[in-house]
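re: ur question from yesterday

yeah so i grabbed the chain u mentioned. its 340 aa long if i counted rite. heres the sequnce exactly as i have it in my notes:
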Amino acid sequence: MILSVLEELKGQENDPLNERERMELDALRNENEYLQAKLSRLEGNTIQYEEDEESKQDTHRKHYPDDSETESSDEEEEDSVAPLPQPKKGVDRKPRTSVSAEAFGVWNKKSDFKPVVVTKNESTKDKIRSRLSQSFLFNSLDEKEFEIVIDAMTEVKLNPGECIIKEGDDGDYLYVVETGQLQCSKIFPGNTEPTNLIVYNPGGAFGELALLYNAPRAATITAIDECLLWGLDRKTFNHIVKDAAVRKREMYDEFLKKVKILQTMDAYERQTVADAFSKHKYSQGDLIIKEGEDGDELYFLVEGEAQATKNIDGELKKVMEYKAGDYFGERALIKKEPRA
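ran it thru and got these structure tokens back, copy pasting raw so excuse formatting
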């Protein structure tokens, strides 16, 4: 599967890659190199074992030639094996269970998940709740899922210069920043010194790529000053956050394909947009945008209809109608001016 993904990405080398895509590509390449090296070692061991066994048999035949007839006779007897009994009719034979890096048959069923609870007071829970609401990773959780994640969060403190994630290591946690700043850096092929990519501020989340794709850490994260983080374990992430994110992506992907302004996006870019969505519900007559106010959000109409009105010569007039698939509010973001 990794090879097929790499081939697909290879065919897209002419397309510009953003930093997140480059990090994922490097992680897949590292994993592929590791698996190929491991496969080569296993094949080498198998060949060596077969050569050793053949050498032993040659030596044995040289010193004990009379045993060859006995071995031949034994082999003929072993070849004459009674046929295996056929399964009885009406008995279901379950297919062999496959194994992957993240799933282990019945042991990975949802029913086997038991939420982790790290004891904390209500004040601490409120802090975590406030920070999680700022991160796109958690904005698709329902109330119950949100509380499970809060209970599972564990406190992590860092001193300036301390490394919390090292490129190439295995990862079992993602982190949300409560206080302080952290530098994300990466050593790209052909370079010996790391390149600084992004600074994480309070409310930012990192470390999810290793959990989403079961790959080594794609970058190094180092504390710039004293930091307080909230860490979430892999198991809780996979059973709660990951599932909710997948559900949200599936829900919005078909819708985003129909939005004209987004039709040049690929599947990964659409998923990134879906991750950043927050749902708002309005009743008939509710005001969504008010002329003259500052605007910091773009709206996509998923269901229903809306209309835009404007004060022209002292009279409120309808200037636009919107239906499902339409969007509005982009002018204030692009031109950095009040709502029109």
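noticed a couple things. The radius of gyration is 29 Å. also Confidence is low (pLDDT under 50) at residues 67-82, 84-109.
anyway ttyl
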